[in-house]
Amino acid sequence: MINIKYKEKDIPLLGDELEVGDEAPRLTLKTKNLAPVEIAPPGKTQILLSMPSLDTPVCSKQAKETNKRLASMKNIEVIIISMDLPFAADRFCATEGISNIIVASDFAFKEFGLKYGTLIGESIFAGLLARAAFVVKDGKIVYKQFVEELMGKIDFKDLELFMHKTYGYPLN
């Protein structure tokens, strides 16, 4: 089990702890318009970014940065996953001009959180997702990053460097 921190206090994460090389759990989430999006389908490469809620300053900034920095990667599906209702995610994307990435919700069954080990356990944030990044290629986890502090940010430079070294994507 992984722990993250909030103001130096440990917060346990629930679910399976995945490692690079593991089979990526396949599941289906709902997008902002209630359409299904499959996570970890064979033959695809996806960047999966989990975060607590688009309605917070750090997550909002991270979503805008993702839309700007990662969406230009050709043949890569970039998906932000949160516990926000699909309708709220749709309003957020419309208001913030986010149209280059997929925004999906795990609110209904918390399946992503449990299968990818990002579901926040006992704390005032219980039920939300921790901030993490996974790259899934052909059904395998090839990259993993957990943000240790709940209010911290995903290290885009590290993710971009991995994508550059591994797949030749240009650095921003």
From TrEMBL:
Protein name: Thiol peroxidase
Keywords: Antioxidant, Disulfide bond, Oxidoreductase, Peroxidase, Redox-active center
Enzyme nomenclature, EC number: 1.11.1.-
UniProt-listed InterPro entries: Redoxin, Thioredoxin-like_sf, Thioredoxin_domain, TPX, Tpx_CS, Tpx_Peroxidase_subfamily
Residue span, Thioredoxin domain: 18-168
Superkingdom of origin: Bacteria
MF-aspect GO terms: peroxidase activity
Pfam families in the cross-refs: Redoxin (PF08534)
Keyword Oxidoreductase appears in the UniProt entry: yes
Source organism: Campylobacter peloridis
NCBIfam families documented for this protein: PRK00522.1
